[in-house]
Amino acid sequence: MTDQTPDPEPEVAAPTPPTQDPLRRSRTSGAWTAVIIAAVLLVLLVTFIAQNTADVHISFLGWDGTAPLAVALLIATVGGIVLTAAVGTLRIWQLRRRVRRGGH
Among candidates 94, 50, 101, 93, which has minimal Cα distance to 71? Predict the structure, then answer.
């Protein structure tokens, strides 16, 4: 009969803390991405303006005049953005006030 000793239990390695990925996102990489997107949008905007230089007649609330088509469309777009931002801001204020008051 042979003397058999049970095998020692295998050592369990302690969990290692997660190593930081050197390629993780950072504020600098986010800023770089924003700069690239802004540059692409700027090129598209300049192209849009260059291709839409024909004058158009504009009448609005008693104002009459002519302006390049691109300028008229950009002004309308900015007006829409401002209106949307104002309505969104009012809604956020309303929701914050409700949360502070307790929900009703």
Answer: 50
Collapsed DSSP state (helix, strand, coil) of residue 5:
coil
Q: Please compute, for residue 65, the number of CA atoms within 13 A of its CA located in the half-sphere on the CB side.
A: 9
The span from the CA of 38 to the CA of 33, in Å, is: 9
Tokens found for residue 75 = 């002004």
CA neighbor of 68 nearest in space, from 52, 45, 47: 52
Non-local CB neighbours of 73 within 8 Å, separated by 6+ positions: 52
Evaluate whether residue 9 is within a structural domain: no
- Tell me the pTM: 0.55
Expressed as residue numbers, the domain containing 72 is: 28-101
Q: 62-86 pLDDT, tens per residue? A: 889 998 898 888 888 999 999 999 9
44 falls within a domain: yes
Specify the DSSP class assigned to residue 18.
P
Total domains in the chain come to: 1
Residue 96 belongs to some domain of the structure: yes
